[in-house]
Amino acid sequence: METRMKKLALAVLLVVFGISNVYAQEAALKKETIEIGIFSDAIEGDLVPFIGYFVSDNLELALHFNFVHAEIDLPGVADDIEQDSFIVSFDVLSNLPTGTRFVPVVGAGVNFSRDEIEDETTETVGFDLTAGVRYFIAERGAVTLFGQYEFADIDFSDDIGTITADGTAYAVGLLYSIFFQ
């Protein structure tokens, strides 16, 4: 818990210092704007790099990646199985300006993961749905409360046969962002 708080504090400080000299929401959501951010996952405590590019006003292509360690409880298997995953996600996000400092965000995407489960390695394609609300603390700086639902089936085989595990995951947290043009 203490490590999570240190990571969160570091992320907040980096963003606050980075955006302290900038200030304009309308310009931040325009075509050719680049968003650089750090997503702090409230469930796992991870810090996830986030990069976005606005292909048109309010429409953003986003890239984020993460490393996850998990224990999977499979039906009919006595022990949990350990899994390490490297995940790369590509999302399309639609920002819905309200004329205020609050901007709802919705999106969907595809994610690719390389999973090491016990001694097996698999590669999986999954999908995610995203919803959140940005709060612009400055013209080019925002904090976004995000929720994300990710789903995929993970197949892995051994000498006995193939097992499919449910790869459903949830992420809730804050994205601290700076916008550049």
From TrEMBL:
Residues 50-176 form the Outer membrane protein beta-barrel domain. The keyword Signal applies. Transmembrane segments: none annotated. Keywords: Signal. The keyword Thylakoid does not apply. This is Porin family protein. It comes from Candidatus Manganitrophus noduliformans. Gene3D superfamilies: 2.40.160.20. It comes from the Bacteria. InterPro entries: Beta-barrel_OMP (IPR027385), OMP/PagP_B-barrel (IPR011250). Residues 1-24 form the signal peptide.
